[in-house]
Amino acid sequence: MPAIIQSDSDTVRNHVCERLIKPAMQRGERTVAVNVGVVHKALGLHNRVPLVCAALKSKKFLEEQGLRILSTTGPPSGQSTTVTFTYEILTPNVRSTANPLNSLRGVAKELFKQLGGGEQFIRSERDKFAGERQK
Length: 135
Known about the structure:
Elements: H1 8-26, E1 31-35, H2 36-42, H3 49-56, H4 59-65, E2 67-73, E3 84-89, H5 109-114, H6 118-134
Antiparallel strand pairs: 1-3, 2-3
């Protein structure tokens, strides 16, 4: 299987998502501020400030993370390590690490108890199915 090559922009977006956006969402915060210089340094980039700025204000990043830019501080060029984007978190992250099936855990516990337990229920269903196939 060939390795998936990630673009530098995707690397920036994924880093910010994993290190800043998701933790802010888990803490229940409604806003999060991201400094371009901090991201640039954390990723060990050299002379890639415009790329970081573009990745952090891209439509792709905003839509994937459910964000809206509230403010941008820094020089008028918008291309500096001093640029800070403040985002409003609009929607919970759809790529949350929590398994959505966990909310269903135990939902049929009482029903299976009345039927003699989960294993007994499955055994009886298999017997019914096998009996119908033999007819």
